[in-house]
Amino acid sequence: MTIEILVPPLPESVADATIAGVHIKDGDAITRDQNLFDLETDKVMIEVPAAEAGVVVTVHVKEGDVVTSGHLLATLEKGGAAKPAAAKATKEAENTDADDSAASPAVRRLLSENNLDAANVKGTGKNGRIVKADVEAAISAKSAAPAKVDAAPAPSFSPEGRIEERVPMTRLRARIAERLLDVTQSAALLTTFNEINMKPVMDLRKKYKDLFEKEHDVRLGFMSFFVKAVIAALQKYPEVNASLDGNDIVYHHYQDIGIAVGSARGLVVPILRDAQNMNMAMIEKDIRGYAKKAQDGKLTIEDMTGGTFTVTNGGTFGSMLSTPIINPPQSAILGMHNIVERAVVENGEIVARPIMYVALSYDHCIIDGSTAVGFLKTIKELIEDPARMMLDV
After folding, report:
1. Which of 82, 256, 318, 364 has the CA that lies 20 to 30 A from 65?
2. 337 is known as an active-site residue
3. What CATH number was assigned to the domain covering residues 1-95?
4. What is the pTM of this model?
5. Which candidate in 26, 33, 65, 364 is catalytic?
6. Rounded to an integer, what distance in angstroms lies between the CA atom of residue 378 and that of residue 66?
7. Would you call 368 a catalytic residue per the annotation?
8. Which of these CATH numbers, 3.30.559.10, 1.10.3730.10, 3.40.50.300, 3.40.309.10, describes 172-391?
């Protein structure tokens, strides 16, 4: 019985996908649920598993092909026997610790982007699975190793000995570029800044972090404090939580907070849906869950759909100050930055305090300057006196 492997239905907002990985060839024996193809969209990576065990008759696509929903990827013979060579290759692959097909899409892309052969990377994950740390270690070793000289054609050099490399943009990077360019042309972007004394929150966190982790089985970070402060500020200034739809302003009476996280493919923004109903433990658990899914390439379209406001933390990378760009159709975004001991004046005395600069970028078409300043000032006041968030005052 012949089985057709098709591109699964793509979300309504995704027109097509690019073949990012082909893990089978004609004659291969495959098992049920084995990943056959990786599809890259402008939002997520999608794995295409085998619905039945069998043998590959024909692979109809190659890496780099653009496909749409229902496109034929491969045909299988259900329950057939593998060709001798293919069977041997399959057996060898099963016995190889560094089997690329066992790696996540994010790891496979990292291998590809750095021209690494999975067979040369020792996996430290379960059953020899290659994890991101293994690839990063191999990249470091490769960078540290002296250049190998052989008879193969060398890269072309300019007279000055400089090398150029041309690499196609990933779908995610191209989509990010498109959206950011669109918003700079369609919105009246402004940014307002403030500074926050983080000592009260840091003291509170230090006092309760062990008890919090023991009680909720998750670490207490700063992000949950900021999310709670953002929710309170959005409720006080609903324009910041609104969006434009033509000549209409749509006010969202709920807070779906996007949290920008880094991944092997680039910056992604999963959503804390109905964050106004979440406590701090729920916020921390969801953020950490999304961060892990992002690193493993497991985020879904549903994880990143929607959002009424976004929080991004450049401080994790050492940023002192930046002007974040809003994520349309949202009207504002909060940028957090690193925490640095700075000299401040309190009661006429110069003292050192852990200070974070924060930035609110907003669309002046819908948000007045006074509203933006008041919004950011509210966040400052709540973070500097976190008991107010607990007391709702």
Report:
1. 82
2. no
3. 2.40.50.100
4. 0.66
5. 364
6. 47
7. yes
8. 3.30.559.10
